[in-house]
Design brief:
Layout lengths: L14 E5 L8 E6 L4 E5 L12 H4 L15 E2 L2 E2 L2 H19 L4 E5 L5 H15 L4 E3 L2 H15 L9 H5 L2 E5 L3 H4 L1 H13 L5 E5 L5 H4 L3 E3 L6 H14 L5 H7 E2 L1 H7 L5 H8 L3 H13 L3 E5 L1 H4 L4 H14 L9 E4 L6 H7 L15 H11 L12 H10 L4 E5 L3 H4 L3 H10 L2 E6 L12 E4 L8 E4 L4 E5 L12 H11 L11 H13 L18 H5 L4 E2 L26 E2 L18 E6 L15 H4 L6 E4 L1 H7 L6 E6 L2 E9 L7 E5 L32 E7 L4 E7 L10 E6 L4 E7 L3 H11 L9 E6 L4 E8 L2 E9 L9 H5 L8 H7 L7
Parallel strand pairs: 6-7, 6-14, 8-9, 8-12, 9-10, 11-20, 12-13, 14-15, 15-16, 21-25, 22-24
Antiparallel strand pairs: 1-2, 2-3, 4-5, 4-16, 17-18, 18-19, 21-26, 22-25, 23-24, 23-26, 27-29, 27-32, 28-29, 30-31, 31-32
Helix pairs in contact: 2-21, 3-16, 3-21, 3-22, 4-15, 9-12, 9-13, 9-15, 18-20
Bound molecules: iron/sulfur cluster.
Length: 835
């Protein structure tokens, strides 16, 4: 990116080591800062990536532009100064607590926040406001792992590290398209397979034939929601074939009798019938697992995001405990976190269901310890509302004030239009945001401008428990401030000055590390007291380290549970008796298809940052609905047709991708697109809000749906240097490019209407000599281009049939040029270069 509109401080280091902004792999990044440029490269010394980056990480530099940033506090749509905005929020928050009690307020935070920001938010809500109502968007991606880990291990511990994926002889990938969603891990695995002549073998369990499945040795395209049956069948197979490690079970676990009994019925034929895969493929998987000691089972949202996600994870942990394959190199269950700091949020207790430093509400001693440590008399004694419940409480009016930080819930929550309606009922909505144009911004009464990646300082923890520094390398623009500062300033104004008088993130980190070791005599997994005495300089130069980091040592811990001891009262892990349960909402005549949602390779969450990088939009630039050929044929849908996905909760529009990779009866739609990039493209507005009763994690992977073809009378696209208003078309997608913005449009009104409409929208006067156009009634198309002083300012291509429209790439490339050549002008309305 060009830094012409930014000022890099003259003493900025040439290379700043930091951590990526996005996914739970947590790659180390080197930001190479000069006075005119920021160049991004992988950090060769970081243990997570060893210099590798994926497309999103590599293009972080393209997202640093200030054009879309929120740079001033705002109150009800007008600019304000910090003291006015902070005073108002602190005063109103205190008033609402005074009138209705602390539980009438809530924080909804994010795995994009740094650990230090998370820590003070949790301390304020649970320690001083005295409510458990702080939950996080990480509830949507990994809450089931927290519960399943805790009930098996007595602690929320990911046992292994990334190196285990390279040391294993078999990787089972359950419910994860990690080639796209955790790409650097996929790169590490591919490199290991090349080095080790095809080992580890890879088995992918996923209803979709994803990019990850394409490269696997075996793909089990099981029916959605049948994972418990599959892994219970595996446990039964291991038992029948004498592959159980009885010595380990006896020494290190309890509960195996009940767990075995629960899977007695799961023979291979029975599992085959339920899961919808052949007995032969099942037998191949079970045999491979049984014979391969060094096995890692990687799982992610395909397992987590389910109304029985916790049981699914327990069924995976059961087979690892039953074989003693845990805590050793190349072995173990491995939950991948979605976001860069989902794990850090778990550490500080940034979830409504945990307290702080992996302490819980179920243990009275923990509450006492946290209260004493914080010197707080109002420490909360019970869990608060989980994400979906929190928005239900806003709708019901029992929660009256919400402070949303670094997340976009009207796009990301299930039944997202409900979330929108619920926010509209709140007395006070505060939003800490980096950007001024997210879908949630219009619902906020007060906007706090937050520091963005590249500006803020703190730590994050990745999926392998590795704590890394995120370091700022750009000055804070405008009035933007770090989240920790904003939270502490509100806390001070609410009368909690001494508890929130932090000089900076290093002081917060020290307190967080001290709390982890407070009254912790080895009975809690999360202990980083070895980092509690870091001075500011040590903190500044902190190298990545996997927790626990015990007092007296700066060494981290690669693997947990190597000694067969766990954090339960008796030190033994629990096998859990799990029983298959169907998805919360069954298919019906009206809604016969299963809607599954997820990520694409080059976008991150709600596109507030990755949507700023034109190169990332080249991969997939419009919301899409992937479906099998048989479903498309039945509905009369062709590849790239526009379709409407309808459920009991609403309707969204996307472009059909007809694919053999999609299982018949299933739809896949990415969740990234927002109202900023498309009309009716927010798939979460049609996703059911069912949740796992244990974890509160929503069932994003299974909503009964139908798909309906749309037959627009007019389709087309406009490319222009400036924004063109096309909002009343029934479909549009906005695709920023280099020096131009493309809008794809479709509508039921005819070509003639849109030909006139876009000419008006582009500000073209009648008989404007700069406007060249062409209309063909026979071919039913209209084309026009605006050329001013030799430079292309805009062009439009409309047709009754979308298939007659030209490709976009060459036309978009013309907007980079200061003037067109004669050949380019000649080819312009054809949409092709003339040779
Ligand atoms: Fe960033 Fe994840 Fe890509 Fe690594 S894999 S560069 S952490 S998005």
């Amino acid at each position: 990116m060009s830094l012409s509109d930014l000022t890099v401080s003259s003493d900025a280091p040439l290379i700043v080591k930091t951590t990526c902004a996005y996914c739970g792999v947590g790659c180390g990044v080197e930001a190479r800062v000069s006075h005119s440029l920021v160049e991004i490269a992988g950090d060769p010394e970081h243990p997570a990536n060893g210099g590798r980056l994926c497309s999103k990480g590599a293009l972080l530099g393209d997202t640093l532009d200030l054009q879309h940033r929120l740079l001033r506090p705002m109150i009800r749509g007008r600019d304000a100064n910090w003291s006015e905005a902070l005073d108002l929020v602190a005063g109103e928050w205190s008033r609402i607590i005074g009138q209705h009690g602390p539980d009438a307020t809530a924080f909804y935070v994010s795995g994009q926040m740094l650990t230090e920001d998370y820590y003070v938010a949790n301390k304020l809500m649970k320690g001083f406001i005295g409510s458990g109502n702080i939950d996080t968007n990480s509830r949507l991606c990994m809450a089931s792992s927290v519960v399943a880990h805790t009930r098996a291990f007595g602690s929320d511990t990911v046992p292994g590290c990334y190196e285990d994926l390279e040391l294993a002889d078999l990787i089972v990938v359950a419910g994860s398209n990690f080639s796209w969603c955790h790409p650097v891990l996929a790169q590490r695995l591919a490199d290991a397979r090349q080095r080790r002549s095809g080992l580890p073998k890879v088995v992918v369990i996923d209803p979709r034939r994803t990019e990850t499945a394409e490269t696997a040795d075996l793909h089990l395209a099981i029916r959605s929601g049948t994972d418990v049956t599959l892994f219970s069948g595996l446990l039964q197979h291991l038992r029948r074939n004498d592959k159980i490690d009885h010595a380990y079970l006896e020494a290190s676990t309890v509960g195996f009798g009940a767990a075995f009994e629960a899977c007695l019925e799961q023979s291979i034929p029975a599992v085959s019938r339920v899961c919808g895969v052949t007995p032969e493929i099942l037998a191949e998987f079970y045999t491979l697992f049984a014979q391969t000691e060094k096995t890692v089972t990687v799982f992610a949202q395909g397992i987590h995001q389910s109304s029985s996600g916790t049981d699914k994870i327990s069924s995976i942990i059961n087979v690892h405990l039953a074989t003693g394959r845990i805590g050793k190199p190349g072995m173990g269950p491995f939950s991948l976190t979605g976001q860069i700091n989902a794990m850090g949020g778990r550490e500080v207790g940034g979830m409504a269901t945990t307290l702080a430093a992996h302490m819980g509400f179920q243990n009275a001693g923990h509450r006492e310890a946290v209260g004493e440590f914080w010197n707080s008399a109002s420490i909360v004694g019970r869990p608060g509302l989980k994400a979906v419940e929190l928005f239900e409480a806003l709708d019901a009016g029992t929660v009256k004030a919400v402070w949303i930080m670094a997340t976009n819930p009207v796009v990301s929550l299930p039944d997202a239009d409900f979330a929108r309606r619920a926010l509209a009922k709140a007395e006070l909505v505060v939003l800490s945001e980096c950007f001024r144009n997210t879908d949630t911004v219009p619902h906020a009464h007060v906007l706090f401008p937050a520091a963005a990646w590249g500006e803020k300082n703190g730590t994050v923890t990745n999926s392998e428990r590795c704590i890394s520094r995120q370091r700022g390398f750009l000055p804070l623009p405008g009035d933007a401030r770090p989240d920790w500062w904003i939270i502490c300033e509100v806390a001070k104004r609410m009368g909690f000055s001494s508890a929130f008088d932090f000089a900076g993130p290093s002081a917060i980190f020290r307190e967080h590390a001290q709390l982890s070791g407070f009254r912790n005599n080895g009975e809690r997994d999360f202990n980083i007291s070895g980092l509690a005495d870091l001075n500011d300089q040590d903190y500044e130069s902190l190298k990545p380290v996997r927790w626990p980091v015990l007092r007296g040592s700066m060494e981290g811990t690669d693997r947990m549970f190597a000694d067969g001891r766990f954090f339960t009262p008796d030190g033994r892990a629990r096998l859990i008796a799990v029983h298959p349960a169907g998805p919360a909402n069954a298919l019906s005549f009206e809604f016969p298809l299963i809607l599954n949602t997820g990520r694409v390779r080059d976008q991150w969450h709600t596109m507030t940052r990755t949507g700023l990088a034109p190169r990332l939009l080249r991969h997939l630039s419009e919301p899409f609905v992937e479906m099998h050929l048989s479903d498309a044929d039945r509905a009369g849908i062709a590849h790239e047709d526009l379709v409407s996905v309808e459920t009991a909760y609403g309707r969204m529009i996307g472009r059909a991708i007809v694919s053999e990779g999609q299982k018949p009866g299933y739809l896949f739609v990415p969740f990234h697109w927002t109202d900023q990039f498309t009309k009716l493209g927010r798939v979460n507005s049609v996703v059911n809000p069912a949740t796992d009763p244990l974890s509160g994690q929503p069932e994003f992977k299974h909503t009964p749906a139908r798909v309906v073809p749309l037959n627009p009378a007019c389709s087309g696209f406009l490319i222009a240097r400036k924004e063109i208003e096309v909002g009343d078309a029934f479909y549009w997608a906005r695709i920023p490019g280099n020096g131009s913005i493309r809008h794809e449009i479709a509508d039921e009104r005819p070509l003639e209407f849109w030909a006139k409409r876009v000419v008006e929208a582009m500000g073209i006067e009648k008989q404007d000599p700069a406007w060249l156009d062409y209309s063909d009634r026979g071919q039913k198309c209209y084309r026009g281009a605006l050329i001013v002083e030799g430079r292309l300012e805009g062009c439009v291509f409309l047709a009754e049939s979308r298939s007659s429209l030209p490709p976009r790439a060459w036309l978009e490339s013309l907007f980079i040029k200061e003037s067109l050549t004669v050949q380019e002008r000649m080819g312009l309305l054809a949409g092709w270069p003339r040779s």
